[in-house]
Amino acid sequence: IDSAPNVPGQEKTYNWKEKLAFQLTPSELPLVFGVLYGFLDVLELAGHGAANDKTLQIERQGPKYFFSMRGEGKMHPMPAPAKDLFRVMALILEQMKATYPNLDTQAIVALSKRVCEIHAAQPTQRKAA
Asked: Are 55 and 71 in contact (CB under 8 A)?
């Protein structure tokens, strides 16, 4: 996932020279899918990057989602209306299907839901609802 700050005064224009890149692990894909699918209200993934200083937070806020990426002394807020998330959800689902070709979509959704339930129940993950 790449993020970049807005160029001041220019709607939907971003400064890609200041971008942050965040690579999801295979074990994080079901959690990201789960928060977008409604199994979690908020998800925070921390400890990424060479300096372990990158964090991605995704939070459902009514009819939209709010992504926030921090690291390398930068913070990029990224509001995302629900209408823009189909491509992201489809991409994650397709990647999970490619990683686990013997699982159909229903199995992947069911497993993702269970992983999110377990994640939310962990005391160190109380932010996940």
From this structure: yes
Q: What is the pLDDT of residues 65-75, one digit of tens each?
A: 999 999 999 99
What letter would DSSP give residue 4?
Answer: -
What per-residue string of b and e applies to 10-20 under the rule 16 or more CB within 10 Å gives b? eeeebeeeeeb
Residue 89 has phi, psi (to 5 degrees) of -65, -40
Structure letter (DSSP) for residue 88: H
In order of 31, 52, 59, the CA distances from 114 in angstroms are 10, 27, 19
Measured distance CA(92)–CA(52) in Å, rounded: 23
* Token pair of 125 as six digits: 């993950």
The pTM is what? 0.85
Counting residues of the chain whose pLDDT is more than 70, the rounded percentage is: 95
3-state secondary structure of 10: coil
Question: Which two structure tokens, joined as six digits, stand for 55?
Answer: 């964090």
